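Lab channel / #folding
Pinned by the channel admin:
"Please post every new chain as: sequence first, then the C-alpha cells as a reply. Keep commentary short and put observations after the output so the thread stays searchable."

First post following the new format, from NK:
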Amino acid sequence: MVETLRANPEVIWGFLLALGVVLVLTPAVGRFARILGVVDQPGETRRIHIHPVPRLGGIALLLGIFVPALAFLALDGAYRGILLGAAVATCVGVVDDFRGLPWWAKLGGQGSAAAIAIGFGVTVDRFTFPVLGIHDLPEVVAIPATFIWIVAIMNMVNFLDGMDGLAAGICGIAGGTFAVIALSLGSPQAAILSAIVAGACFGFLHHNFYPARIFMGDSGALLLGFTLATLSVQGLLKTAATVALFFPLLVLAIPIVDTAFVIAKRLKYRQPLYTADRTHLHHRFVNIGFSQRRAALYMYGWCATLAAAALATRFLPPRPHGELDISHTVVDAVIGLLAIATSVYIVYLLEIVKLMNPRIRRREAEARAQERVSA
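Reply from TO:
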C-alpha cells in the first residue's frame, strides 16, 4: 500500500491542497453569506443552534474540490461528468439556501445532477457478491439503480447535516476510507478525488465543529452526497473485488441508517416524508442530554469503526488465495464485533435509555405534538 501511495503522490497533494483551500476560503464565504443575508436563524423546527450562523459553506467546499481536481485529475469522461454534476448539485443547494425550494424542485435538481453523471458513464455496470460471483447488469437495470443510489445518498447526507460538524466529519471519514480502498483496487483517479473530498471536509470541519461559525447548507450537503455517491460507483462498485458491494454500504451506513430510521418514524406517525423534524439520530442524542460536541464525537467513533470494518474486509480477506487464513479471520472477526458492539451501544443509548427515562419520553411526545400542530 505504501508503494502504491508513493506511485500516486497526487492522492496526498490533492488532500493537502483541498484542505488548505477550504481552510482559507471558508471565512470569506461566511462573511459573503452574512452580507447577502443567507443566515440560519435559531428556533426553526429541526435547528438546535442558539445563534444566527451563515450558510453557503458549500461554495467553499466546491472550490476546495474543484481546484485540486483540475490540478491532479485526468479529466476523462466519467470524472468530467462527476465534476459537472457536482457543480449542478451545488447550484441547486445554493438556490435552496437563498430562497428555499419546494421538495419537488429540489428533487428535480438532484435528478439532473445524477443524470449528468450517468450520461458520462458513471453507472453500476456489474454486480459482485460472494458465492454469486460477478454478474454484468443490463442498462435497463444499471441506469435506474445508479440514479436512485445517487439521489438517495444526496438526500441522506442532507438529512445528516443537522448538527455542528456532523456531516463534514462523517463525509471526511468516508472520503478518506474510499481513497484507501480505491487506491488498493487500482483506481487512482477515484482515490485522488476521494482524498480531495476528505481534505475539503476536514478543512471545513475546522470552521464547522461546535460552536460552528458557518454551516455547509444544502449547497454543501448535496455536493458531498453527490460526490461520495458517484465515487462509490466509479471507484468501488466497478471493480471485480468480491465484497465491493459492502464497501459503500459500510462506510455510508450512518446516513443510510439515519434516513431509514426517520422514514420509518414519519410513516408510523403519518407525517409527510419531506417535512423537517427532530427524529434524526443527532437530535435523539441531544434529547437524552448529550452536548453537540459529545454527540458528534460519538457519531465519528461509530463511523470510524464501520470504516475499519470495510478496510479490514479489503486488506485482510479471510480467504486471500482461496484458502482460509486464520489470522485474517480472527482480525476481521474482532473488528467486525467491535463495529457491531458500537452499533448496539448506540441503539442502547438512543432507545433503551430513552425508554428508562420518562422525562425523555415526555419531551419527545411534546415535540411530536408540536410538529403536528405546526404542520
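NK: The chain has a mean pLDDT of 85.
TO: also worth noting, The CA atoms of residues 81 and 119 lie 7 Å apart.
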